[in-house]
TrEMBL record:
This is Protein FAR1-RELATED SEQUENCE. It holds the Pfam family MULE. It is found in: Nucleus. Residues 4-41 form the MULE transposase domain. InterPro entries: FHY3/FAR1, MULE_transposase_dom. Keywords: Metal-binding, Nucleus, Zinc, Zinc-finger. The keyword Nucleus applies. Signal peptide: none annotated.
């Protein structure tokens, strides 16, 4: 909207076209990458290294979620790469080179209201993909969307009934 105030920060996926458009349309807005997309790509590219209970996974998660200084992050990443012999891993090289777009230590001066991902839209998108196959016709989309809503409402109703507090009657004996 012309004349509308620009957001201070915007979180996007790693689409270069979006990045260029945002830089052009909102030059005073800081844009960062959605951590959810970075982690999804990590899962695709690092697969077995991120297996359940792996030492690498624990170190990677610590680096991504808990390191707060730039030095701590860079030293942690370098140590992890060295320890696991991943100096030539293309994905790890790319995330290092783009760290200022997604890593927590580089967000410290940017107001994000504690958000690091497009979490609501991503979770809704993930839920919808479970019901609607890609390339579906509109009538199938609507039918499956209604089924998704019905299933969610039913589950919510079930959980509400299951957890409803029961009023106990007690008798006072004097």
């Amino acid at each position: 909207m012309i004349g509308a105030p620009q957001p201070r920060t915007i979180l996007i996926d790693q689409a270069r076209a979006m990045e260029v458009a945002i830089e052009d349309a909102m030059p005073h807005t800081t844009h960062r990458w959605c951590k959810w997309h970075v982690l999804k790509k990590a899962k695709e590219c690092l697969g077995p290294l991120l297996g359940k209970g792996s030492e690498f996974k624990q170190e990677f998660n610590k680096m991504v979620h808990h390191m707060v200084s730039e030095k701590e992050f860079e030293d942690g990443l370098a140590c992890m790469v060295q320890k696991h012999g991943l100096q030539n891993n293309v994905f790890l090289t790319q995330i290092y080179e783009t760290r200022m777009k997604w890593a927590k230590p580089y967000f410290m001066d940017v107001f994000c209201a504690k958000m690091t991902s497009t979490q609501r839209s991503e979770s809704a998108n993930h839920l919808l993909k479970g019901y609607v196959p890609p390339g579906s016709l509109m009538h199938l989309f609507v039918r499956q969307y209604e089924k998704m809503q019905f299933d969610r409402d039913s589950e919510e109703s079930y959980q509400e009934k299951r957890t409803k507090l029961v009023r106990l009657r007690t008798y006072c004996v004097l």
